[in-house]
Amino acid sequence: MTVARLTIGRPDDWHLHLRDGAALAAVVAHTAAVFGRAIVMPNLKPPVRTTAEALAYRERIRAATPAGAAFEPLMTLYLTGTTPAAEIDRAVASQAIIGVKYYPAGATTNSDAGVRDLAEAGAVLERMQELDLPLLVHGEVTDPAVDTFDREACFIDRVLAPLVRRLPRLRIVFEHATTREAVAFVKDHAHLAATLTPQHLLLNRTAMFTGGLRPHLYCLPVLKRESHREALIEAAVSGSPQFFLGTDSAPHGRSAKEAACGCAGVYSAHAALPLYAEAFESMGRLDRLEGFASQHGPAYYRLPRNHGTVTLVREEWTVPESYDFGSDRLVPFRAGETLNWRVAEDAP
Ligand code: DOR
Ligand code: ZN
Question: What is the reported pTM?
Fold first, then answer.
C-alpha cells in the first residue's frame, strides 16, 4: 500500500552545521521551517570553545532565523586539548549546552584545533561523565597510514572502545555513523546512540564516481560500500531508540566544492525530511520514521518532544540547481532532481 500523506510529531535535527555570517543567514531558514530544534556544531573558524562563545553564537543564529519560526538551536562546545574541566560546569549551569563535540585533530573541516590525544582531555571527560553531559564524537582516526574507508572502524578499536572502558557511564553519540562496525558497537552499549545522515542511508560510495567525479557527494566520513549502507538503513528502520536523525547538513560554497581540493560536506537541510522519508519508504517502514525523526532524540537527550506536527505529502518537486550563499552559490543534495515527498506546513 502506498501512503499519500504522513503526519509526524515535529522532528529535530541532532547534528547540523549552520556556519556564521552570510552563510548562516543563507541556510538557517531551511532547517527552521521544519525542525523544532537542532544541535548546532561548533566547528566555526575560530571554533566555539566556551559557553560564552556558544551563547553569543546562539544569539547570532536567533537573529538570522526568520521571524515566527519556532526553532531552538541547541549548542555544543568544541573540545580542545586545553578545555578546562571548569568549562563543563559552566556549560551545564548555562542549560544551553547539550554536549561537547570531539573532533580528532585534522579529521575534517575546521578540526585543526581538535584533540590530538584523548589523554589530554581526561579531566574534562571525567567531569562530563560526573555531570552527565554527552560527548558527541566524529569517529575517525587521522593516522595517514589508515585507509580512508577504514578510519571509522579503526576509531572504534583504537579510541572509542578504550574510552568506553575508562568512562563506562559517559554518554556518547556516535555522530554520522557510516559502517556496520559503528552500528554494532552502538547496539552493544545501551547508553550510546548514533545519528544517521540522509546521504549515508541512501547512497553507497559508488555514487561518488557515477558518470564522473561527484564533488557534492563528498563528505566525511566518506560514503562506504553497499553492505555498510544496508547496516545503517536497517538500524534506522529497526525502531531502536539508539538511532536518530542527524543530517550533518554541511554547506560549502560551490567554488570550495568544485575545486582541485574540494571541501567535505553535503548540504541536505533543504530536503532533509523528504530524503529520510525516501530512505524509510525504500524499506517499507515509513511507520518508523516518526520514532527516528521526532522521538528517539529527545529521549536520549532527556528533552520533551516538540509540540506540533509536520506532514509529508507524496508530491513531486524539483530541487533547485543551487541556492544563494552569500557571494557564492550552494549546490544542494539532489540538485536538479525530482523528489517524491514534500513537507506541507501544519498549523502550529
Ligand atoms: O563532511 C563533513 N563536513 N564532515 C564533517 O565532519 C564536517 C562537515 C563540515 O563542517 O563541513
Ligand atoms: Zn558534522
Answer: 0.97
